[in-house]
Amino acid sequence: MGKKLWTEDSILQEDLEKVAASELIDWEQLRGKRVLVTGATGLIGSLLARSLVCASAERSLGIRVAALVRNPKKGKAVLGAFLEDGLELVTGDICSPLAVDGPVDYILHGASMTASKDFVDHPAETILTALKGTEHVLELAREKHVKSMVYLSSMEVYGVASPESYVELPQKLWKYAGKGDRSAGLSEGKMEKNSCTAAIVRETDYGRIDPLQVRSSYSEGKRMAEGLCAAYAHEYEVPVKTARLAQTFGAGIPKTENRVFAQFARSIMSRRDIVLHTDGGKAHCYCYTTDAVLGLLTVLLRGENGEAYNVSNEDTYSTIRGMAQMLIERYPESGSRLVFDIPEDANKYGYAPTSRMLICSEKLNGLGWQAQVGLPEMFERLMGSMKASDNE
User: Fold this and answer.
1) Is the entire prediction scored with pTM above 0.90?
2) Are 317 and 200 in contact, with CB atoms under 8 Å apart?
3) In the chain, at which end, N or C, are there fewer CB atoms within 10 A of the end residue's CB?
4) What stretches of the chain adopt beta strand conformation (E)?
5) Is residue 6 within 8 Å of 54, Cβ to Cβ?
């Protein structure tokens, strides 16, 4: 009997099978257990839920996955194919106290505001969703005496690194950092300086966040939620860990996704120019979805309570414009060009402050995890999945 076809998207199918086949995870710890996933209709939450169901079926583990959703109709649209294989939809909103019937052994808490424009248009809701929502999930974890919980945080908690903390990067990391700088009109000297230096950020390195800037609602909210997790671990012995995700993308993104990676991919696929509304100088790392899922499960099962772990592929370090130029060079048949259209009031769009940070994942590497998928392959798989979605 062949493996089950979980989706018509062959790229996503491969990704689910890859997670299920991974020997990095001690799957026996999850045998017969119930795992609650919040934010289960989002990119990471949905992939966590689907990956757990797939692994359970492939390995006959009997894992029960409870997907917390606010909208059952949307939950069925995203996860309906998995409902007969150990996945259940639990209706609830993390902004209110949670009531979940039955045992809960593990929690992966991914519910959050995620759209940059919402951070500016709805800053109060952004903060309260992070803080009150995480409080309600922690209280549920405390009530259910869970074995482990992971809070999905963000690299944005690091804020803007001080220029004094910048160091020269190894030459192997320059490959996407400088591409496109000439098209931005930078001088040779400035391009070299920008390309070669960045802050190397580990879990104890924090930059500046201006709490009076409206866009800080997201980063400050994440910081506060992390602090609450640490407090619950210390005071109530809730076994919670924090995972700080680099920007993550790959197969299975929703059609409505509008973050920069999706915009770039659609521009290449539709043979349009890639338009930047900033100078594209911000530089950081990315992570492919399967790498992120395996990283989160590693933190869940091997991480230390009260600790934080970066989930990042250091080899993907890139400026925004460097990433755009990489795609243009890799897909010349698109005819796409790099175009700059910088509005006078860019702040209203919720763009993150410009900084250059290499998010170091050596702490998570110490638990046995290692990112596998590089930036070109990330986009190749993303676009293959997007084409499959367009054909549905």
Assistant:
1) yes
2) no
3) N
4) 34-38, 64-69, 87-91, 106-109, 148-154, 166-168, 197-201, 240-245, 247-249, 274-276, 283-288, 308-311, 313-319, 338-340, 357-359
5) yes
